[in-house]
Structure formats: C-alpha cells, structure tokens
Design a protein that fits this description.
Layout: E1 3-8, E2 11-16, E3 19-23, E4 27-30, E5 46-55, E6 68-69, E7 73-76, E8 80-88, E9 94-98, E10 111-115, E11 119-126, E12 132-137, E13 149-154, H1 182-206
Parallel strand pairs: 5-8, 7-13
Antiparallel strand pairs: 1-2, 2-3, 3-4, 4-10, 5-6, 8-11, 9-10, 9-12, 12-13
The chain binds copper (II) ion.
Length: 207
C-alpha cells in the first residue's frame, strides 16, 4: 500500500490509493473532492459555499436535545460542488459526516470532517446527479441520538430521514408495551389453537 505524506500549509497530507486524508492537531478531513466528477455528471452545475456550525448552543431550541448543527437541511442542485466550512463552537470533538456517496469517489461512501474542539475546517465535495437524500451526522457515541442529525437533499431528495430535530418525527418515538394480562394470554392461546386447528379441519373436509 503506497502512502505519501507531504506538508501542505502545515497540514499533513496523506493519501492511500483513492483515500484522501488530511490531519493535524485541530482535526481531520477525509475524502475531500475538489475536481473528480461523479460518473453521472458532465460538469459541475453550481458551486455552493455552505457554513455548517456544530455545538451545544445550536441544540437549545430543540427540546431534550444536547448537540446539534445550526441547520438541519440543505438543498442543492444535481452535480453541485459544495465548499463546506465546518465550524465547531464546542470544546469537545464533533464530526460532520455525509453518508451514501458513490464509493468510487468517496471510500465507504463517506465524506468526513472532524474537529477535536473549537475551530474550523474547509473541504469540498461534488455530489452526483441522482435525486437523493443524504444522511449528515456526527458519529461520536450518542451525538446523533442527542441531536446531531441532518439531511442533504440533491434535486429535492428522495424523502425525509427520521428523527431530524425540528423537522421529522422519530421512527420509534414511543413504544407501547403490550399489557400481558391473563386475558391477552388466553386470546393468544386461542389464536394458536385455531391456527393449528384450521388445516386439520380443511384436511378432513377434503377427504
Ligand atoms: Cu458530535
């Protein structure tokens, strides 16, 4: 496996095959893509500068959430190039990960920015033409559940993701456990007996 490391503006710039990674004491950039076009794109349709902030203060407007991005949804055109400026307003580590991207451009289908604490990173990516909704989140333990979940829609997207703070409902918001009284057990038993009995009756009728 060939690894090359060169200093770029004080950042360590390392590449392994298609993998692309930059890392320094402030954070990490993986799979940035400034110029490789997705297969379904003839050219870049638009270049969009997007600033995404992360931190506790962005979760204050959401009941019961602890972390969030400052926006929960972004809409771009097919074949758009995004120049992402990721700012962490917290003193703890946060990530900005975009999932479901084509694997031939983004290993593991993933674009990944990470800040160890307060600071910022800038990185580009180019989105395919496909009408699709991409998951954007922070993958640190419990951060997504605590609010760091958002969606990026290309060409209007192909639906909404669940549990996005302020936007969409949770899939398993509440569970209502069945009250296993003797009555429900009796009904269940009856159902099992009927289910087992019906084929027997049918078999007799046929013979
Ligand atoms: Cu986080």
């Amino acid at each position: 496996m060939g690894v090359f490391i060169t200093g770029v503006n004080g950042l360590v710039h390392a590449g392994m095959h298609h993998e692309h990674m930059m890392m320094d004491e402030t954070g990490m950039i993986m799979n940035a893509n400034a110029d490789r076009l997705p297969k379904d794109c003839e050219k870049i349709s638009e270049t969009v500068d997007i600033t995404i902030r992360a931190g506790r203060k962005h979760a204050l407007k959401f009941n019961g959430k602890m972390f969030a991005f400052d926006n929960q949804e972004w809409q771009v055109k097919p074949c758009a190039k995004l120049n992402i400026r990721f700012i962490n307003d917290d003193q703890i580590r946060h990530q900005l990960m975009i999932h479901g991207l084509p694997g031939y451009l983004y290993p593991d289908g993933m674009f990944h920015l990470e800040l160890n604490g307060q600071g910022e990173l800038n990185a580009p990516l180019i989105l395919p033409k496909l009408k699709k909704t991409y998951l954007v989140h922070c993958e640190l333990p419990q951060h997504m559940e605590k609010g760091m979940k958002a969606q990026l829609k290309v060409d209007g997207g192909d639906g909404d993701l669940p549990s996005i703070p302020g936007l969409t409902a949770a899939v398993n918001a509440d569970s209502y456990p069945v009250d296993w009284t003797q009555a429900t057990l009796a009904i269940l038993l009856l159902c099992v007996l009927i289910g087992a009995g019906v084929p027997l009756v049918l078999a007799r009728l046929r013979s």
